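Lecture 7 notes: from sequence to structure.

We start with a single chain of 93 residues. Read the sequence below before looking at the structure.
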Amino acid sequence: MTTEPDTPAACGWDQATYRCGRCGAQYTVTTEDAYLQAVGVHNDAHALWDRLDPIARDGFASILRVILSSAELGAEFLAIADQMKARTGGGTG
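Now the structure, written as tokens:
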């Protein structure tokens, strides 16, 4: 009976490095799933960057820096948005 390797390294996967040709970002990961996720998320971020004009990029980046600085802040802000929407019957969503 043969058994399959139970670790990525045993399958021949040690690590992979993704280097973006557009911005120079570099990510080294140790699993194929992590590699695919890193490449996908990075490509999605470039697609978003391309859709925004320079003023919108600056504003969006500023907002993300504030929100992502604290997971609790982001969660609380969304809770307030949901409460205000329910209270007023409209708003963001």
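The radius of gyration is 20 Å. Keep this in mind for problem set 3.
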